[in-house]
Design brief:
about 375 residues, alpha/beta, Rossmann fold, 6-stranded mixed sheet, 6-stranded parallel sheet, oxidoreductase
Length: about 375
């Protein structure tokens, strides 16, 4: 076993709050198909927050647990379990989600819709580590990795070996969030909506997912890109990254999204991507979607929220409402593609990442809440 530190999430004391603390943990050595990874950096995703603010037992959530699922490292594979073939000790790796590799979705090249995705990624497993001061075994293997730990046992299927793609340790830290947020935004354009030059794309929310979608829509040559957020600085940044139009939902004189979009394009947007999970924005986004257009849902709304649709109107509209997990991406293909685009100057994630020492995770969370940090990344110092 290895003694290390981790951010442990316990059951929230108040509704819609989180209860995180840095604690000493002991990590077991890897078993069959597992890898011991020494973390260098990990992004904080909205999913980490949502799934640690849920009461124990709801949707299968258990406590205590170690979250974290956007990570990278340099020379960090420290030990291998049996049958591991994709990496060697010392290799730098990027991590993404877990999939079983054998169900119908996995076999048809859609692992993000794996039949065990929810249980393995959102809930995880016990048995990978224990808390030093009381012997509790927290739920770990979150998204196959639980990267809010300085060391963690990771499923091989969650690993992308990047030894031939990475030029420096600084790049490793920079690319930490590629395996979730940016990947999801990328795939929402490439896969879920297949947006292209004939499309008017509207993106709701400009966190890492929204910015990833924006940069990819620009690469795809979409006819127009409309971005929506309540933080003016993010809207200004989006314009620098290629947005055609901006809508500030925090403005005192705001109108409905449908009215705002139809002033620009009378038929509405052909592709609307919601990254916020805000019910009113989802509903307005649907109304702003043109006939035969696509509404792609990514953001996690309040648990139990239902989108009411008039079925007859929906039939007549020909619209599609698409659920999007991880951008329907295969990480082993998506991550190298994003790295290539970065080197070509077309996917400038360096303009969007902000670093925090892992011990300063509360400051990173504050930046997310206030909208000042597009993609906060926790760095594990050695």
């Amino acid at each position: 076993m290895i003694t290390t530190t981790a951010i442990v999430a316990r059951e929230p004391e108040q509704p819609q709050s989180i209860n995180w603390a840095m604690e000493e943990v002991e990590v077991y050595m890897p078993g069959e198909g597992e890898i011991l990874v020494e973390m260098r950096a990990t992004g904080i995703c909205h999913t980490d927050i949502v799934l640690s603010s849920v009461p124990a037992g709801r949707i299968g959530i258990q406590y205590p647990k170690v979250l974290g699922h956007e990570v990278t490292g340099a020379g960090i594979v420290r030990a291998l379990g049996q049958s591991v073939k994709s990496v060697e000790v010392g290799d730098p790796v990027l991590l993404s989600y877990y999939s079983c590799s054998s169900c119908a979705s996995c076999q048809s090249a859609h692992p993000a819709y794996c039949e065990v995705f929810a249980g393995e990624n959102y809930v995880g497993r016990q048995g990978g580590m224990k808390i030093s001061n009381n012997g509790e075994e927290p739920w770990s293997k979150f998204f196959g990795q639980s990267s809010f730990s300085r060391h963690s046992v990771v499923s091989e299927v969650s690993v992308v070996n990047v030894k031939d793609m990475i030029k420096s340790e600084d790049e490793l830290k920079l690319f930490a969030p590629l395996g979730c947020g940016f990947q999801t935004g990328m795939g929402a354009i490439l896969n879920s909506s297949n947006a292209g030059p004939d499309d008017v794309v509207m993106i709701l929310g400009l966190g890492a997912v929204g910015m990833g979608a924006l940069m990819t829509a620009k690469i795809r040559g979409c006819k127009a890109i409309i971005v929506v957020d309540k933080v003016e600085a993010r809207l200004e940044h989006a314009k620098r990254l290629g947005a055609s139009y901006t809508i500030n939902t925090g403005a005192p004189d705001k109108t409905s999204l449908k009215d705002a979009v139809c002033k620009l394009f009378p038929s509405g947007a052909s592709v609307v991507i919601d990254t916020t999970g805000v019910p009113t924005l989802i509903e307005e986004g649907l109304q702003a979607t043109q006939k035969r257009g696509k509404l792609v849902l990514i953001g996690v709304p309040p648990l139990g929220y239902e989108l009411n649709v008039d079925v007859v109107q929906h039939i007549n509209s020909g619209r599609s409402i698409i659920g999007c997990i991880e951008g329907d991406c295969i990480p082993g293909k998506a991550i190298p593609q994003m790295i290539q685009w970065y080197r070509e100057g077309r996917f400038p994630v360096d303009q969007l990442v902000q670093y925090f020492d892992a011990a300063e995770y509360t400051q990173a969370l504050k930046g997310m809440k206030e909208g000042t940090a597009v993609k906060p990344v926790l760095v594990w110092e050695y």
